[in-house]
Write a structure and sequence with these properties.
Length: about 90
């Protein structure tokens, strides 16, 4: 039996470092891949994942609740009231 390459496992910190380097756009994915010893396609995947996950980065942080969250219950109660009046009429 021949032994194949062992799969490398990278830490989240390493992936973030590589993805941030790719986001900077100074170097190509090939250059970044060579520098960090990762395939350029993998660098591209990590970059894409970072971009997609960035929008959830600040969820759950303290601060004022968005106005839409305050208004939604008011709109729902208003709609319930209208429907109740229609049923009773």
């Amino acid at each position: 039996m021949s032994e194949g390459k062992k799969r490398k496992f990278h830490t989240p910190e390493f992936k973030a470092k590589v993805a941030l380097e790719a986001l900077r756009g100074i170097k190509t994915l090939n250059e970044i891949g060579q520098e960090f010893g990762v395939h350029p396609i993998t660098v591209g995947h990590w970059k894409k994942e970072l971009q997609e996950q960035a929008k959830t980065l600040f969820e759950g942080k303290r601060g004022p609740t968005p106005i839409a969250a305050h208004r939604e219950p008011e709109l729902l109660y208003s709609e319930i009231g209208k429907l109740k009046v229609e049923l009773d009429w």
